[in-house]
Amino acid sequence: LHDRDGKIWMDGQLVDWRDAKIHVLTHTLHYGCGAFEGVRAYDTVNGTAIFRLQEHTQRLFNSAKILRMKIPFTQEQVNDAQREVVKANNLKSAYIRPLIWIGSEKLGVSPKGNQVHLMVAAWSWGAYLGEEGMKRGIRVKTSSYTRHHVNITMTQAKTVSNYTNSILANMEATDEGYDEALLLDASGFVSEGAGENLFVIKNGVVYTPDLSAGALNGITRNTIFSICQDLGLKLVEKRITRDEVYICDEAFFTGTAAEVTPIRELDRVEIGSGSRGPITEQIQTAFFDIVNGRNPKYASWLTAV
Ligand code: PMP
């Protein structure tokens, strides 16, 4: 990913892709205190637009606040940086990655006195869990790793260090031939995927774990809430057990990267008919209509680049 043409926005300037470098004594590289976002721009019917840009930027600032980091730019500037980077790389659609980190002035656990930096990169990224998975559903394994407890590394911040746990869970699941991991919280209730929120459907009602299970407050998750309302589907946030997932009718993951990915199997137990369920397909279609600019009701969620 690093050896290519293009531009990356770094601390207020567009720099050549290959020159977007940091020092090995960067504080965040040693202690993991940093935060990022994952945002997508779509090639909509009205041209390239970023989906829910303000919400993603707000979450980045929330993550920074939780981590006691002060971003040396305004939200407006961070929004502009994301649009600029998509434009500068001539991308029609893109995955956008803003990241904040602590500089290399000094080491030691306390980051005080170090500068906070921000970069934004963008590149093409297709279906995160595969095109095939979008149609047929993916195979998921309950992880032997527990999702962070809400009072450990802070689950509402999209922190760099939270992802060690996601990496372990994802590697374990994929090493065993599954597509993705499902993590339970410290009490054994369903939390989320390694990089996705979970939804299950039973008797026409849509359920998702409430945030006390430590899942990230996903922006796609929130989009699904609106879609359910539009489709007349009841949506309930509650504690969910893994066996409730085994016996549900349909299940799917959501995320900026994963979009709406159906789940056909958990721990070799077939979910529903073992393929993408009909309500999941309806929700997925509504989602892609919104992000691609085909639903005027949500035009304000799309920011032209
Ligand atoms: N949970 C985790 C751990 C994630 O990494 C992501 C992706 N950002 C999500 C949930 C989904 O969040 P969003 O819909 O905002 O991308």
From TrEMBL:
EC number: 2.6.1.42
Domain of life: Bacteria
Keyword tRNA processing assigned: no
InterPro entries xref list: Aminotrans_IV, Aminotrans_IV_CS, Aminotransferase-like, B_amino_transI, BCAT-like_C, BCAT-like_N, BCAT_family, Class-IV_PLP-Dep_Aminotrnsfr
Reactions performed catalytically: L-leucine + 2-oxoglutarate = 4-methyl-2-oxopentanoate + L-glutamate; L-valine + 2-oxoglutarate = 3-methyl-2-oxobutanoate + L-glutamate; L-isoleucine + 2-oxoglutarate = (S)-3-methyl-2-oxopentanoate + L-glutamate
A Gene Ontology molecular function term of the record: branched-chain-amino-acid transaminase activity
Cofactor: pyridoxal 5'-phosphate
Record key words, sorted: Amino-acid biosynthesis, Aminotransferase, Branched-chain amino acid biosynthesis, Pyridoxal phosphate, Transferase
CDD domains, sorted: BCAT_beta_family
Listed pathway(s): Amino-acid biosynthesis; L-isoleucine biosynthesis; L-isoleucine from 2-oxobutanoate: step 4/4; Amino-acid biosynthesis; L-leucine biosynthesis; L-leucine from 3-methyl-2-oxobutanoate: step 4/4; Amino-acid biosynthesis; L-valine biosynthesis; L-valine from pyruvate: step 4/4
Family: Belongs to the class-IV pyridoxal-phosphate-dependent aminotransferase family.
NCBIfam families: ilvE_I (TIGR01122), PRK06606.1 (NF005146)
Function: Acts on leucine, isoleucine and valine.
Name used for this protein in its record: Branched-chain-amino-acid aminotransferase
Originating organism: Pelomonas baiyunensis
UniProt gene name: ilvE
